[in-house]
Amino acid sequence: MKFVILTLFPEMVDSALSHSVLGRARNEGSLGVSVRNMRDWAADKHKSVDDTPYGGGPGMVLRVDVIDRALADLRKEFPNADVGLLTPQGERFTQQVAEQLAGNGRDLILVAGHYEGFDERIRSLVDGQLSLGDFVLTGGEIAAMGITDAIARLLPGVLGDDTSAHEESHSLRDAQGKRLLEYPHYTRPERYAPTSRNTGELGVPDVLKSGDHAAIARWRLEQAKGRTTNR
Q1: What is the pLDDT of residues 53-74, one digit of tens each?
Q2: How does the average pLDDT of the chain come out, rounded?
Q3: What is the end-to-end Cα distance of the chain in Å, rounded?
Q4: Given this model, what pLDDT does residue 170 score?
Q5: CATH architecture assigned to 168-230
Q6: Which of 70, 72, 192, 210 could lock onto 41 through a cystine, CB 3.0 to 4.6 A?
Q7: pLDDT digits (tens, 9 = 90+) for 129-178
Q8: Exposed, middle or buried, 53 (CB in 10 Å: 0-12/13-18/19+)?
Q9: How far apart are alpha carbons 75 and 27 in whole angstroms?
Q10: Confidence of residue 30 (pLDDT cuts 50, 70, 90)
Q11: CA-to-CA distance for 213 and 119, rounded, in angstroms?
């Protein structure tokens, strides 16, 4: 699966997706990410991609002709791709959506807007619209990076240990298939008294030190169910 991110700030996106797990996966060839600059499809010498809104009002609006030319070229270059528009008005992006997109065998082009918004006609050029939640960002770049990260880590070879993604929040499931939040984790030191907050000494549950793997599995499932109910 390949990701193509169409943005006004390619350096911002490319830099963020070049570190840690995704950076390593890109270097190893198990993840393909292509970041494209909207201004490459501007028609004037100033590389303009936006204009003032009809009817008046604040801000600048991304032009439909610029985005159309970009998508026309990108669809030819990536004929197996779906196009997603990042907008607060889109479908709420969830782990289930991430799993669907990771498993459908298609590439994904993400259009990250900026400024006041898109010309409404751009919505007719895409296959779907996605939102991180009911809030507004200054641009779609952060949403594009978050969505790319969430989907990419589900792809074979990206995490290295492909089983770990199935034991995390929203992917972990009980016997009935209900999605659960992840169980708590602990590491050394075994006992610790924090200085940043007066909690007293904190320890590690005895079951995790028991070596009884069946008991540990039962405890983790109980913890996950409890967290899901409470949170």
Answers
A1: 999 999 999 999 999 999 999 9
A2: 94
A3: 33
A4: 66
A5: Orthogonal Bundle (1.10)
A6: 70
A7: 999 999 999 999 999 999 999 999 999 999 976 545 556 656 688 888 89
A8: middle
A9: 25
A10: very high
A11: 57
The CATH architecture one would assign to domain 2-152 is 3-Layer(aba) Sandwich (3.40)
| Domains of the chain by residue range | 2-152, 168-230
